[in-house]
Amino acid sequence: MQLTIITDLNKCVGCKSCQVSCKEHNTSGAFGPLPDANPYEEADGMWWNRVVTMESGEYPNTAVMYLPKACMHCYDAPCVPVCPTKASYKREDNGVVLVDYDSCIGCQLCMWACPYGVREFDETEGVVKKCTMCIDRIEDESLAAEDRQPACVQSCPTHARTFGDLDDPTSEVAQLVHARQGFTLLPELGARPAVHYLPRRPSPAIISAETVDAHMESEGY
Amino acid sequence: MKAPAPLLLITVLQGLSGGMAVALSIEVIRGKPVSPIAYGVALALALIGGGASFTHMHHFSAGRYMLRGWRTSWLSREAITTGLYIAVLAATLWWTVRAPGVAVGIGWWAGWAAALGLFAMWVTAMVYASIPAMRSWHSPLTVVTMMTTGILGGFMVVLPFIGESASLTIASLVVMALWLGFRGLQFRFFVDARQGVNAATATGLSRAPHRLQDSGTTKPPYRSQTQIAPDLPALTRHLAMAAILWWVVVLPLGLTLLAHVLKAPITIAGIRAASVVTGSFIDRWLFFRDATHSSRAWFADLGPSKPGLAGAKF
């Protein structure tokens, strides 16, 4: 089993509700693992999920894309073998990559080994933290079935994010990746991320009125 | 990325100590008397470096689990090899104090200290060279440059303790030439890594150029993600390179020539050693500070002329 989150980049509008709901869920309560000591002073504190806004191309052929980026829960997670204390580990039963805060020494080598820049150093506790795929929610049997999914997935207003088991060919995520040619980020680095993105549909070709007129005239219309 | 002071100390001082152990073992093999002070300095450097690495741990109580990951983690192996090296070096020092000069058994201990010094240097270099995401470091050049830096520095630091040694001076000049070649290639590798940040595969958007927009909460997380740091200005980079060349190559070469003219080799050898050590620290600072991480594609510095838009284009 490999739990994952699939994001449809056609549906993501960059509203950051996934980013905010992640922070809200993981800082709530006295023992929230994600610190948020000065939320009104430092907007750019610790985030386990960051929405990147990327613009590409030259005018008029440009595109803007919103890319929610959190832990990719890689099959060959490079952050796991570098850890000297085995604090970083990948769950065998569901493929989620987690950090044991009690045995993390805060050396930050896993942050350097992660190709995606999704691990964050908690200066107050001196340990490295990251997206847990809301493992506390998905394994909490006291929650209703519709609530047993990551906060970012549940909060997405456009349903751009889908949660499920990538290794199960009958699951919705596996079928989406198969049917829509889902891709991973930085595949050349060999981490084999579990998190996939569904690609943008191609932009329509821009043809000016003059080009159309010239073509019509050449065809004798 | 940021250049953490504890890592500067462990990598430079452990390299110097290992280089000293190699130089001293050569002298022992050649039948020369070895000063216990030289071994004492090598041990002190290794201890300071090893001690400094403890300060890089931010959750000290978890340090007891440090060796759990030795099968896969080069950092765990570094703790083992550095510890072993320090132990053997201490034993070698004890032998030299017990019987100053050439003594039965010292050759064996000196040989082991040199071998473990080189091995510890190699393992430390592999901590950095084995990270594919750190584009500037993921190369054999990291290993050979770190090792030649350590050996060169160690040779230079030993020379004031053992007096004039033509063979060791020539050996250190050969290592200096090797270091210069490796460092030149590494500088080129760093440039390629900087230019090779791949925004196309990092976003799935193939159409270049790519521009990052600052949308308020996606500023570069320099405080909480130490693998990236504000881009080093080109002037600073080139000044640092010039300083490294001056302290590691130009000044030591000039001092070597001067030593022959002035007939005061030990004083000049001391200044030359200080010069190479200074250059080694600047070199290691640049190694950390100028390194490019693959996540750079998603975090760019804000351009002063374009508020709201990232300055970097890929």
Q: Can you give keywords for this protein?
A:
heterodimer; A: alpha+beta; Alpha-Beta Plaits; 3-stranded mixed sheet; 9 strands; elongated; B: 314 residues; two-stranded antiparallel ribbon; 9 helices; 2 strands; 65% helix
Supply the helix-strand structural class of chain A.
alpha+beta
Average pLDDT over all residues of chain B: 89
Beta content of chain B comes to under 5%
Specify the helix fraction band of chain A.
Answer: 10-25%
| SS elements, strand count of chain A | 9
Mean pLDDT of chain A: 91
Tally of domains of chain A: 1
Could you say how many structural domains of chain B there are in total? 1
CATH topology of chain B: Formate dehydrogenase/DMSO reductase fold
- Classified by CATH, the class of chain A is Alpha Beta
- Give the CATH architecture of chain B: Up-down Bundle
Low-confidence stretches of chain A: none
Mind telling me the C-alpha Rg of chain A?
21 Å
Characterization of the model:
The complex is a heterodimer of chains A (221) and B (314). Chain A has 221 residues and is an alpha+beta fold. Chain A has a single domain (3-218), classed as Alpha-Beta Plaits. Helix content of chain A is 19%, strand content 18%. Chain A is built from six helices and nine strands. Chain A has helices spanning 17-27, 109-113, 135-138, 151-155, 172-179, 209-218, and strands spanning 3-8, 50-56, 63-69, 88-90, 97-99, 120-122, 127-129, 161-165, 196-198. In chain A, the strands form four sheets. Chain A has a three-stranded mixed sheet with strand order 8-1-9. In chain A, strand 6 and strand 7 (127-129) form a beta hairpin. The model of chain A has no long low-confidence stretch (mean pLDDT 91). Chain B has 314 residues and is mainly α. Helices cover 65% and strands 3% of the residues of chain B. Chain B has helices spanning 5-29, 36-54, 74-98, 106-129, 140-162, 166-195, 199-203, 234-262, 265-289, and strands at residues 210-213, 309-313. In chain B, helix 1 (5-29) crosses helix 5 (140-162) and helix 5 (140-162) packs antiparallel against helix 6. The radius of gyration of chain B is 22 Å and the shape is globular. Chain B starts with a helix and ends with a strand. At the A-B interface, strand 2, strand 3, helix 2 and strand 6 of A face helix 3, helix 7 and strand 1 of B. Strand 2 of chain A pairs antiparallel with strand 1 (210-213) of chain B, so a sheet runs across the interface.
